[in-house]
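User: Hey, quick favor. My workstation is busy. Could you predict this chain's structure for me?
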Amino acid sequence: MTALFLGIILLFFSSANSQNIDGTMVIAHRGASAHAPENTLAAIKKAIDLGAHAVEIDVRMTKDGELVVIHDASVSRTSNGKGAVNEYTLAEIKKLDAGSWFDEKFKDEKIPTLNEVFSVIDSTVTLIIEIKDDSRYMSKMIDKVIRSVRKNSSHKKIILKSFNTKVLERIRRFAPEIPLIYVYGIRIPFLNFSIGSGVSFQDLFTLNVDYLQPHSLLLSQDFVREAHANGYKIIAWDVDGENKMKRMIRIGVDAIETDNPDLLLKLLQEKNN
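Assistant: No problem, here it is.
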């Protein structure tokens, strides 16, 4: 499997030609997660303070149907708890320490609810919400997210995203007004499939979304141009080092998602001066 993946990389990776770009959106991945514990209010506030244009978060649902902001299906990695998010009630999850794993100075950080995130995001910052895949509760969770977005969309800029095309199709069917992102790992054009939460054999340029978000590794200028010609904007993910950032800027992506929004903002400022 590893040899096959490396072969695909060698086959499809192409170097980018230089291109001028202005207005690249800087997206703070799980907040400014290089500076504060990911998906906490501290990380989100830090991203805003640094000047990020958008903040990306992940949403899951608790046992009692509350929307909470956490990436993993388990609380184990980013808190002092153990076990699945969907086996905790909101009251139980709020007892967990979600900051000390990152640095002791964040020991009072909690796993926030989506509503708590809305309370710190204003109209100057776009909020990108990734709906994490939990098949047992997916329809219910999507519907709750849609209701929350509609409640806040009159005074906030909100985009939804998913690795799962079925999730995006449901959102589009019931909430056609909400901008959508399809995020995925790799695309194999001649086989016409992409790998997100699973393998999708749907042509990317037939997806009813506004943004495509491929992994940065295989992104080329040719693909960015092709996507633009088909009416899609491109967001690159897993872009944390300076060299990666410079390459994404050169090939003309519309947005870059990073743990280090301050570094990216600095590079963009230097380029435009």
